[in-house]
Design goal:
Bound molecules: ligand MGD, molybdenum atom
Distance between the termini: 8 Å
CATH topology of the largest domain: Rossmann fold
Helix content: 25-40%
């Protein structure tokens, strides 16, 4: 066996961003779009009168602080260039390539073919997609949806790029049709954060805003790779450092963005010394975070006992929290040595971290997928909250919770009601506003949706954006589920594997992207989005659409609703698709915090949604923040030698693969690699480039990934890392977080075998 592409290995980069990233971006823009178009578009990125960057959900600076230079980063620029591609896929493309031909192509190749331009259909038994009119496509959808025995046989997935306006109408249509089956990418992403934060502080979102970060004395970044996945966060971290703040990173990998940084938009810094980012790096074992937090809590409690009231914020604890005594007793009985051992971090470093926490009052803890994609994710996040609450570090400037959201509007989609179990209060207001009775059965989440399809209970699958087939866990099982559907259809900008792993009939509905102008019969329309800090702002694309046949996501939902719900349906779908202001009026009626939406969205920079935790108004049943006791129980089979995590490279956006180079990690030309600690390599007799076989075992079932090339890497011993989505075949469907069913994509128990015919062949 030979690797498809031979990996090239060089030392990881020491500094993130800087001149090189600008060059990379310029090259991409040049390659993907017309030069003039690309540069002009970059200047509109995240400006108050421009469009919201379609990459990540990191907040923009306040309107009065926005510099003349566009607020963008390398990966935002890549996302814009990728969407604004001058390449298009015309019907002749599908004449040329059958589904089988396309299945042979890489995911990089599929998206690289350019933007989808016309609705396409794959009729039962066809080998090629062929053109279909929009009208015929909607009538096909209506026929199939109305033929089901029950609306719960249909599944309506959402990825996180959909605007507030489109998401609101979409969930409204789905519920009027009769189901709560609204799984979304958040189910596989920050679901555990939402759950654990709502339990403890009464709101599932971040309690801090962008301006809080430079005010913090201490920022702890856990399970996140901001240099790649939220590069603009580095700017805020640099400001914090310049103000004298400290940063602790907690990660099994020493990620480049956490080491040193050169501001990509400050040319005068390109030659000078980079800002050194972290003060302390705690190289945990994969999922060593919960024991690490416990060890820290133990050290904090000891210090508090020696100097009562000087470590913990006792006044805050007394006034705003419940559960202190139970937590204190739990920590008293926790075995420190065991926790240190389980965390994988040397005691000396944990003590250093503890002393930083002891000495600081304004603390922010940020986290992302390295914390949420675990079986015990909710417990770890509640433990993070424990530390913040004991320090009184929430609801004041420079302190609080910071779950860093992924997709640019994933948080907004949830606020708009894209969730399988919205609370009763929302359902009642939605029903009143649109004069219908919303369904009461809880819908399926992402894992539940896969199970329903495999069991034959889910028969129609719709994707509002995204690439479910590849993003979801347990690739082979997802494929099986999608293939047994009667109809699968997707609203998309680019071709991806979900269009090829199809039901009996399939449709591709091409839509406008974030960067493109959206003009209805009523004139230009704009949409709005919500960032990680809960700020809602307008987004106004201004590029000419790549094809006159594209529809906006809003128009697609409205046309679909008209076709499915029929002429008698009282909702003004037609009016709303022509005037998005009417949608915002309805949102204002249904969702608290959006009062006067149409007026407030006009203000440059937008407005913040209410956030109780930010005001120390904890919306839990007893109106207090909850300190909690969280057992350490990983349920790991003691026999499995490795824990494998799946991570993003610097050259991808989720399943969109921009290229084969992970520049910061020094891994290039291949994604079929496994990062491995040198001691483990020695023990297994592996050299760089050797091919290995990985076998995950879950509840007795084996899943296999073969022919991956070993890359020696500074990763905690006993831990391995492969890229997402290639690693998804190894993530068993049942391997998900206990309370919110988030796939444990960072906790895969695996065996590793060196393959005989390795790289020497
Ligand atoms: N350019 C770009 N930007 C993106 C995305 C993208 O693909 N590309 N994706 C977007 C989306 S949807 C999301 S959700 C975010 C994701 O942003 P991240 O969460 O930064 O993404 P991952 O690559 O999954 O990185 C997880 C990090 O956690 C670490 N980690 C893994 N397991 C553990 C663990 O057990 N403990 C700790 N402490 N650390 C661990 C890994 O080493 C890695 O550094 O980024 C968003 N932004
Ligand atoms: N093993 C493993 N699995 C994971 C993860 C992991 O870390 N490890 N991460 C999980 C996470 S955090 C997430 S968020 C999910 C991501 O899951 P998804 O959101 O489903 O996947 P994406 O790759 O972001 O979707 C890419 C597709 O979206 C479409 N698209 C792009 N822009 C637009 C637009 O403006 N409108 C519409 N309608 N379509 C558009 C394009 O056709 C593109 O091909 O994956 C999850 N899966
Ligand atoms: Mo995500």
């Amino acid at each position: 066996m030979r690797p498809k592409r031979k990996v090239k290995i060089s030392p990881p980069a020491e500094t993130a961003a800087g001149l090189k990233s600008i060059q990379t971006v310029a090259y991409r823009i040049w390659e993907e779009t017309h030069v003039g178009k690309g540069v002009k578009t970059l200047f509109k990125l995240n400006q108050p009168n421009g469009f919201d960057c379609p990459s990540c959900a990191w907040p923009d600076p306040d309107a009065n602080k926005v510099s003349k230079i566009a607020e963008y980063c390398e990966n935002g620029a890549k996302a814009v260039a990728w969407e604004g591609s001058a390449n298009t896929i015309e019907p002749s493309f599908f004449e040329q390539y059958s589904i089988n031909d396309l299945l042979e192509k890489s995911d990089h190749w599929l998206e690289k073919q350019g933007r989808l331009t016309q609705p396409m259909v794959l009729k039962s038994g066809d080998t090629h997609y062929s053109p279909i009119t929009w009208e015929a496509a909607f009538s096909l959808i209506a026929t199939q949806l109305l033929a089901l025995d029950h609306p719960d046989q249909a599944i309506f997935y959402t990825s996180g790029r959909t605007s507030n306006e489109a998401a609101f109408l979409y969930q409204c249509f789905v519920r009027q049709y009769g189901t709560n089956n609204l799984p979304d990418c958040s189910n596989m992403c920050h679901e555990a954060s939402g759950k654990a934060l709502t339990d403890t502080v009464g709101i599932g979102k971040a309690s801090v805003v962008l301006n809080d970060i430079p005010k913090a004395d201490l920022l702890i970044v856990m399970g996140q790779n901001p240099g790649t996945n939220a590069p603009r966060m580095l700017t805020a971290m640099e400001e914090l450092k310049n103000n004298g703040g400290k940063i602790i990173s907690v990660n099994p990998l020493p990620e480049t963005g956490l080491l040193q940084f050169r501001h990509p938009q400050k040319p005068w810094e390109w030659i000078g010394k980079p800002t050194s980012i972290h003060d302390l790096h705690l190289q945990v074992k994969v999922n060593g975070d919960l024991p690490l937090m416990k060890a820290l809590l133990k050290m904090l409690l000891e210090a508090e006992k020696n100097a009562p009231g000087e470590v913990f914020d006792t006044a805050f604890i007394a006034e705003f929290t419940v559960g202190y005594e139970a937590l204190r007793q739990h920590i008293e009985t926790t075995n420190l040595a065991e926790m240190i051992q389980e965390s994988g971090v040397p005691e000396k470093q944990i003590r250093e971290a503890a002393s930083l926490i002891i000495g600081k009052k304004n603390i922010i803890i940020a986290w992302a997928m390295g914390i949420t994609q675990h079986r015990n994710a909710e417990n770890t996040i509640r433990e993070i909250v424990n530390i913040l609450l004991l320090k009184g570090a929430i609801g004041k400037p420079g302190a609080g919770t910071l779950p860093v959201r992924g997709h640019s509007n994933v948080q907004g989609d949830r606020t708009m009601g894209v969730w399988e179990k919205m609370p009763d209060s929302f359902m009642q207001r939605l029903g009143n506003a649109f004069n219908f009775k919303p369904p009461i059965n809880e819908g399926v989440h992402a894992v539940g949706a896969i199970q329903a399809m495999v069991d034959g209970k889910g028969k129609v699958f719709m994707g509002m954006g995204g690439n479910f087939a590849l993003a979801a866990p347990d690739t082979n099982i997802v494929f099986e589920g999608l293939k047994q559907c009667a109809l699968t259809f997707h609203v998309s900008t680019k071709l991806n594997r979900s269009h090829l792993i199809h039901g009996k009939t399939a449709l591709i509905l091409p839509c406008l992207g974030r960067t493109e102008e959206d003009i209805s019969n009523n004139g230009p329309q704009f949409v709005s989005t919500e960032d990680t800090a809960g700020r809602v702002r307008r987004s106004h694309g201004d590029l000419k659409p790549v094809s006159p046949d594209l529809k906006s996501e809003v128009a697609i939902v409205c046309d679909m609703a008209k076709a499915v719900l029929g002429k008698e349906n009282p909702t003004d779908w037609e009016g709303m698709s022509e005037d998005y202001g009417l949608i915002r009026d309805k949102i204002a009626e249904v969702i608290p915090g959006f009062e006067d939406y149409n007026e407030r969205i006009k203000v440059a920079g937008g407005f913040y949604l209410p956030n109780g935790a930010r005001e120390r108004n904890f919306n839990t049943p007893d109106k207090k923040a909850r300190l909690t006791v969280n057992p350490v129980n990983f349920n790991k089979n003691p026999e499995t030698p490795f824990i494998l995590m799946t991570v993003r490279s610097h050259d991808q956006f989720n399943t969109t693969i921009y290229g084969y180079d992970d520049r910061y990690r020094g891994i290039s030309n291949s994604r079929e690699v496994v990062m491995m600690n040198k001691d483990d390599m020695n023990q297994y007799g592996c050299k760089a480039g050797d091919l290995v076989k990985l076998t995950s075992v879950f509840e007795g079932e084996k899943r296999i990934l073969e022919g991956f090339q070993v890359v020696p890497y500074d990763i905690s011993p006993g831990c391995l890392s492969v890229y997402f989505p290639e690693g998804n075949v190894l993530v068993a469907l049942g391997n998900n977080s206990e309370e919110s069913h988030c796939p444990a994509s960072k906790y895969i128990e695996v065996f590793l075998e060196k393959m005989d015919n390795g790289s020497d062949e």
